[in-house]
Design goal:
Number of strands: 7
Oligomer: single chain
Largest sheet: 3 strands, antiparallel
Number of helices: 11
Length: about 300
């Protein structure tokens, strides 16, 4: 049985930039900056803030998955991460945004295993990519570096992350660049699944298998969001590859039931919380097929 958790846990690392999506994409020939085309009959439909919020709330967090991975007792593996030497190859806004998400997921995995010796190199990579898509001004990287190398400051990192997210949300909307968020979220999501899939191949851990299977509920929405920007060939290709991954989930069965409502006290008020519990049916052959497609998609993103 699985419970759904907030994707905002990923932002513990302090650098995963997400916002709501709207419009269709257009590349500037001078700066290669991803911007939104003017509204026309052929332009993409606007996606509400609630749509992306639902995606963010339901995607399994790479940090959450990393915690489950750590609990299995498997050793940390740097070789499964995207090498920071690759950033020079990401010379378009499209690639920078996707791999900003990838490195964000990697940093969550690194922090979960307390590998402070490589934190700085990933922060430097993230700083370079974020500045490359003109959003680096929202992050105090010196402060983030100090806190990321001190596990006692993870709560502070979360607070900075939330603040940065709110500023980014407003900025990208005003600049008509909110489509960038779909790339960052997709990159982080795929990298989290890739790391998890690598461990599944080694351990066949049931909790991890079920967590990956649960993504069947969200992949349809991600595909729709990306196809909304399919006037851009890059988005069209990415949506096509997401569709191939979606097909690998076809045989997975998920049933959802509501758990008993719980009451909690928050800020002096009584709040009723309704949890959802998912039941997963997936075969070894199906998970192997899903992991294979995840690996192929991840290779496309980071290459």
């Amino acid at each position: 049985m699985l419970r759904k958790f907030s994707y905002l846990a990923l932002m513990m690392a302090g650098i995963c930039i997400m916002s709501a999506c709207s419009g269709s994409s257009k590349k500037s020939s001078e700066s290669d900056e991803l911007t939104l085309a003017p509204a026309t009959e052929s332009a993409a439909l606007e996606l509400s803030e609630e749509v992306m919020s639902d995606v963010i709330q339901n995607i399994s967090s790479p940090v959450e998955m990393a915690s489950i991975i750590k609990a299995t007792g498997v050793d940390f593996s740097q070789k499964i991460l995207n090498n920071t030497d690759n950033i020079d190859a990401y010379n378009t806004s499209y690639k920078r945004a996707l791999n900003l998400g990838v490195y964000s997921a990697d940093l969550g995995y690194i922090n979960t295993f307390d590998k402070n010796n490589i934190v700085v190199s990933y922060l430097v990579a993230i700083k370079s990519l974020s500045e490359g898509i003109k959003v680096g001004q929202f992050f105090d990287f010196n402060a983030l570096k100090r806190m990321a190398t001190n596990n006692n400051n993870l709560d502070s990192l979360m607070q900075i992350s939330i603040s940065s997210f709110n500023k980014m949300d407003s900025y990208l909307r005003n600049q008509k660049r909110s489509n960038v968020s779909s790339l960052i979220v997709t990159g982080a999501w795929i990298e989290g699944l890739y790391i998890t899939g690598s461990v599944i191949e080694e351990t066949r851990n049931e909790d991890l298998i079920n967590r990956v299977a649960e993504q069947k509920d969200i992949i349809n929405i991600i595909e729709i969001i990306l196809r909304n920007y399919s006037n851009d060939p890059d988005f069209a290709e990415l949506a096509k590859r997401i569709g191939k991954l979606k097909s690998a989930f076809d045989g997975v069965k998920i049933t959802t039931e509501f758990a008993e409502p719980q009451t909690i006290e928050q800020d002096g008020k009584l709040i009723i919380v309704q949890d959802e519990i998912s039941h997963i049916e997936i075969t070894p052959k199906q998970i192997d097929g899903i992991v294979a497609e995840i690996k192929a998609l991840r290779e496309f993103i980071v290459s």
